Amino acid sequence: MSAVQNVFIIASGVTFALGWLLIVIAAFRESVRWGLVVMFVPGGPLAFVVHAWERARTGLVVYLIGASGMLATMLPWKLPPKRAEAAPPLEGASAGTPAAVVPACPRQDRAGKGFSRWCCAATGWKEVSSGSDCSEVYQPTEPCDESTWGTTSTTACSTSGPPRKKDG
Question: Could you give the residue ranges of the DSSP H alpha helices within 31-52?
Fold first, then answer.
């Protein structure tokens, strides 16, 4: 959570506690019995608010403001992600696609014998690794578009011929 969210949660919590305290004080002003009911009986504060609306109204409003502030901050609502600094587009990406939008491929272990690993990038499928015995590799058949950039796929490779020479 950000510092602003932390401050907002603390302020909301203090407001929430203040509202509950105002309801407890109003209940004790009504009678000791009501004060004890509000403090120790589940549903007691609600019963007191219904019974003595005029006395408990202010405390209830402050309580609800604090509760709604805490809920609004702690629920998993998120602001849209911050836009990254403008960077040159990746090779093959459309002109309006900043490089920060194209996720990087995760690090992968080398592909095992008979398999090759591929990563979907802005320019299409790129081979990440292949088994030492691959004579021919096959590109994945899944589409590689903006919705799948940064994902990986493993395909089988042909091992019927001599192992191919790696580029680079």
Answer: 32-40, 44-51
